[in-house]
Amino acid sequence: MAERLLRLYVDRLAARGDAVSLAPACRVVYVREGAATVRAAGQVATLAPNSAWHGAGECAVRPGATGATLLRWELAPVGAPVAHGLLLEARVELDSPDGYLMRCDRVDFPPGGIAYTHTHQGPGIRCLLTGTLRVEVNGHAQDHGPGGAWFEAGPDPVLALAAQDQPTSFARCMILSAALQGKSSIRYVRPEDADKPKTQTYQVFVDERIDP
Prior knowledge:
The structure is a single chain. It is built from one helix and 17 strands. The chain has two domains: 2-92, Jelly Rolls (Sandwich); 100-210, Jelly Rolls, CATH 2.60.120.10. Strand 3 and strand 4 form a beta hairpin. The model has no long low-confidence stretch (mean pLDDT 96). Strands 1, 2, 3, 4, 5, 6 and 7 form a seven-stranded antiparallel beta sheet that branches. It is mostly beta strands. The longest helix has 4 residues, at 191-194.
């Protein structure tokens, strides 16, 4: 079994600013606002709002003409130095014989949407993009607004209640067994909830195997 730190950073890059160099790490870069260009291993990726990039080597991120606000998830060794902009970190244990993948996706709820009590098959950090979300875990509730971040370990049952008066959305990055590539990681706790219509929708940006 190996322990790692899953970290979420927020990078706010000025319009037409200099590129930011990032050391090698298993990471996902998601553009919340603005636009950015990522250069890595001789290739260039241009990211628009609500898009993401994944890589493990050294890279450089340059903001676009209007700047950029980025969510950046990284998987780091325990004790690794912390960079500027850290929003949240959590220890994760890796013991899957199938290897691992990083999945970055976006979840959207209509007004009054509910994610019925469920678990996931791996840990992850979420960050709210729009609306508000009440997250109930083992009887404890937290309310999150835009920019709020929280960690879900995976096996703990979670109930999520979205705002009644506006759409709600969040982006997340999860560390999952590679056996789940292309498959949902959610499991509903109550059998009767599994067959209910689901209000949330998903947009997957990254679902890539990693060497953590």
